[in-house]
Amino acid sequence: MKLIFLGPPGAGKGTLAALVAGLYKIPHISTGEIFRAAIREKTPLGLKVQAIIDAGQLVSDDITIELVRERLAKADAGNGFILDGFPRTIPQAEALATIVAVDAAVNFDIADGDVVSRLSGRRVCKACSQNYHVDYMRPKVDGICDKCGGELFIREDDKIEAITKRLEVYRAQTAPLIDHYRKAGKLVDIDARPASGVVLESFQKVFPVK
Ligand SMILES: [Zn+2]
Where does ATP bind (predicted)? Predict the structure, then answer.
């Protein structure tokens, strides 16, 4: 099962990828993880990536694609994989098509308004980094961590302006991939609004575990 996961920040894509990877015994491959592994293993590409990041620059498409190619050639990806965070653009999708034919692109569908209320409600403990949510996972005392009594705060990334910015980037850059894979007959829409257990059930209905 060779899959691409698409969806805006806050859609719960990472959580689902971890659940699906465990259940279907295929690796969850995110570009962040590929970069970190290449850097850690000091491969020739890893050294290049390290230099680019140290210089505060963005890793180019060519290098990213080369890293993805190397990662997909590893034995554990032989039975399938979940690509998360790649491709992000149409040129990347076209490059990927020259490496491997994916079975489906799964679109974790959620409206911007739902993303904003989901992410802007997140609170994190300053002391122990425990996560809370003002609607779904309230602490016993407002603003105070249940585990350690630390103060809860809103991460910069979870402030409404930052969320709006990330959604704009996603809609402009990555959302065209939805049409791209729909035209190719490979798009599967999954409603990402419910809790992760329910989203996983919808996923399993489309992709039964063999
Ligand atoms: Zn805490």
Answer: 10-15, 122, 194
- Any known ligand binding at 64? no
pLDDT at 210 over 80: no
Does the residue 62 lie in any domain? no
CA–CA dist 113, 97 (Å, integer): 33
By residue range, what is the domain housing residue 129?
2-26+79-206
Cα 159 to middle of ligand 1, angstroms: 20
Number of domains making up the chain:
1
Task: Give the max Cα distance, the chain.
Answer: 54
More confidently predicted of 157 and 139: 139
Q: 136 falls in which pLDDT band (50, 70, 90)?
A: confident
According to the annotation, is 12 in a ligand binding site? yes
Whole-number pLDDT of residue 174: 87
CATH number of the structural domain spanning residue 166: 3.40.50.300
In this predicted model, which residue has the larger pLDDT, 4 or 60? 4
> Is 54 contained in some domain?
no
Task: Say whether 32 counts as a known binding-site residue.
Answer: no
Q: Model pTM? A: 0.86
Residue 122 CA, ligand 1 centroid: distance in Å: 14
Task: State the angle between helix axes of 90-99 and 61-72 in degrees (0 to 180), rounded to the nearest 10.
Answer: 30
What is residue 93's predicted lDDT score, i.e. its pLDDT? 96
- Please say whether the beta carbons of 141 and 51 come within 8 A: no
Active-site positions? 13, 88, 122, 155, 166
User: Distance (Å, rounded) from C-alpha 102 to C-alpha 96?
Assistant: 9
Ligand 1 center–CA 198 separation, angstroms: 28
